[in-house]
Design a protein that fits this description.
Chain A is of the alpha+beta class. Chain A has 18 helices and 29 strands. Chain A has a 6-stranded mixed sheet, with helices on both faces. A 5-stranded mixed sheet of chain A has the order 12-13-16-1-17, with helices on one face. In chain A, helix 3 packs parallel to helix 6, helix 10 packs antiparallel against helix 12 and helix 16 runs antiparallel to helix 17. The longest helix of chain A is centred in the N-terminal third of the chain and has 28 residues. Chain A is globular. Chain B is mainly alpha-helical. In chain B, helix 1 runs antiparallel to helix 3, helix 4 crosses helix 8 and helix 6 crosses helix 8. Chain B is globular, with a radius of gyration of 24 Å. Classes of the chains: A alpha+beta, B mainly alpha. At the A-B interface, helix 1, helix 4, helix 7, strand 16 and helix 8 of A face helix 2, helix 4, helix 6, helix 7 and helix 8 of B.
Amino acid sequence: MELTDPMKNLLSRSAWTAVIVAGLLLFVLSCVDKKDARFLKVGLPEEPKTFNIWLASDANSKKILSLIYQPLYLRDPETLDLIPWLASGEPQYDPATISYTVRLKPAKWSDGSHLTSYDVAFTASLIKEFKIPRYYSSWKFIKKIETPDNHTVRFYLEEPKAIFLTRTLTSSIVSKKEWADISQGARTQQKPLKALINHKVEKPMGCGPFVLEKWGRGTYIHLQKNRYFFGLHQEIGGRVLGPYVNDLLFKVYGTADVAVLALKKGDIDLFWWGIQPGYIDNLKQDRNIKIFYGKKSALYFLGFNLRTLPFSDVNLRKAVAVLVDKEFIISRILQEYGTRMDSIIPTGNRYWFCSDVSCYGDGMDRNQRIKEAYHILHTAGYTWEVPPVDEGGRVVPGKGIRMPDGQPMKKITILTPPADYDPHRAMSGMMIQEWLKVLGITAASRPMAFGALLDQIKGRHEFDAFILGYGRLSMDPDYLRNFFHSANDKERGWNMSGYNNPKFDRIAEKSASEMNPELRQKLIHEMQKIIMADVPYLPIYNPALLEAVRTDTFSGWVETLDGIGNIWSYCLVRQNDATSP
Amino acid sequence: MEVRKFVLKRFVEIFIIFFVILTVLFLLFRLAPGDPVTRMVDPTLTPEDSQHLIAQLGLDQPMGLQYLYYIKNFLTGNFGNSFHYGETVSSIIWSRLPNTIILFTTSILLSAFVGVFLGKIASWKKGTKTDTWMTLGALVCHTLFLPWLAMLMIWIFGFKIGWFPLNGMISPEIWMDPSSGVWLKILDVLHHMVLPLATLFSIHFGSYLLLMRSSMLDTLKEDYILTARAKGLEEKTIRNKHAAPNAALPVVTSVGISLAFSLSGGALTETVFSWPGIGRELVFAVSNSDYPLAQGSFLLIAIVVLMANLVVDVLYAYLDPRIKY
């Protein structure tokens, strides 16, 4: 190939220009990058979608908003008890009027205006009037709210509701000043709720430790210390709060691989998302990185469809429960980074967790499980062409299982999310499919797109069994009622299994209105025992929460259930070489 | 047929095709299992909440009525609001589109330029070592798995050597600093562009090289090239003036369509490099049943691709005088 002289010149000039520009680029930018030591840099897996608190449903929006909008009460990170946050003391209950009186701390919004009882009342009326999803169920039973003075709020309940303390009082409070005009505008629209949630919030006005300084769309989020934060230098929950860092910088890392590299390189101080076990060995080699092994308030389970055969039979569900080797799933699939679950409520939720429940297959080896499952089914009237346990008591591959009425058992499908969404659940489904086959049950694990999976389970109820998980269950156990009360067995209802037990319903309703914590605890324990006896869901595991932080820049992270990424950490973490900002 | 008549005819065709796409898009999302509310795995969201939300989003209406609103809104330039962002679809698309254009359009143009240039050399030196190495290199690059190459680039140049940022489009520290000037900000974006651009370039230039090489080899067999040689013209003139312009025609089509599709970004590249483009939004919208955002993004791509087809057709007549409309 011959090049003309002008072309040679052009190429030569282009090459030199490129080299000079690249050199300049590297030099200038390597100098500038060092100017950011004051920032606490946090990696997020995705960009938050919105800062409109009423629309935010994604985890990342909620994380940022949790540092801006604040509730009246908050959970202590160690004891998990509710402690006054915006409130100045415990709520005073008056059984005669079914009312609670809450006194507020002196607090200000981020614009310097005072936070008053009227803001609390406004929040309640806004949620009730617009029936704001996710919030409405926690506020709808409030009959009226009185504001005797600027710092006192009295809530009158239609009937005693246990979730008032744990969910209503832990809901975020918004500023009347910020939302009054917006809500007024929304009222005039044909679809008021749509208008309210579609309102673009550029600068959310909160009273929390941080305020939004700038949202560089698609690139970063900058939060600054709120100088009006009510907890600043105050002792709350036995801790003198900061924040002790002036600036939080959130960056997006689309893959965990790059986030881990960023952590090692020092581009971020924390990746606010669980780290996969595969990265742990590599991260352990870096002496400036510390790994926190936390517990999650999570539930990963095998659910059955109780509306139709074959899982409408409790004996089959119990047999499957015995067959499922949870220890195997935890050791081989979760690589030991998880704990076995035997109840619906996670063990980390110490107050409500009941340990006295049926633990199917606990301590059994493979052959014992098969024999026990066979025994349950055989006693219930199931028959086989070739039983899984022969006359000599040896375990053999079972074949041709028939229901107690003599009909062959149909093929069972276990729906799971796809492996790219959650490899653990997809793999667990495949393992369970193999275990069922040993018993002579024809089973197939079928991973499917998450939206289609939920539609089939929650919407159309067309399934045999499924594996799903809740990664962040609330601390209040009222979800037990949501999951298993027969009233919730409807389209889009959370009783996905179609469980229907009048005794359970009665206790669940009683627990929802029981205001005495000790009595409610007994009821919640009773509910767990009933569920584990009937096994509409078989809890399998609770994955460990692995989080990694740099130790050479900031310290003081606070561990609690659901990890170190919590408001306490952000209020207490300090730069290593600074005493106070 | 005159060019004007041809263009007019093509506009009518484009309008019909676009209407079909508009309808298919609407049906595709509505008929897919699941809806935006069902996907929300939040036990605090009661069935009553779900119904209320569905009604507010207009998803409780009969599908025919929804379709009429959809067409009406489209004709008035209203793509609706994203279910998850709450913002208008057009504002989301316009905020992401420049980022996509900066990276992906640049990569296509750069790949095409280098690919055509090297393809021309490879074909001219057919059978030599230069041709073998170029063809082999192009094949290897073209078949590389993009996320793997991207991670390798990040690991070597971002992490190990540390010359370039690991990901993102800007350094927030620079952009938040009021003392940073415009040039520094431009340099910063260029600095962040290097790795994703190099990755995309490595993947794409090979296809242009191979396309140009193959097209050029076909052209070199044509009678007019033989005639040119018989006339005693210089080899350089034959190659650059007679062969290359004719051989470039399929490349023009390919570049035109690629440029149009570049607006859709690349979800994989954008995810690995955390590049805030439209590709990631598209994937998010589809996987979360955000109908308005998904529809708006796909319609934009459809319009641009259809128009690019038209432009390429007209350009053909300009580049090749033998083609008459």
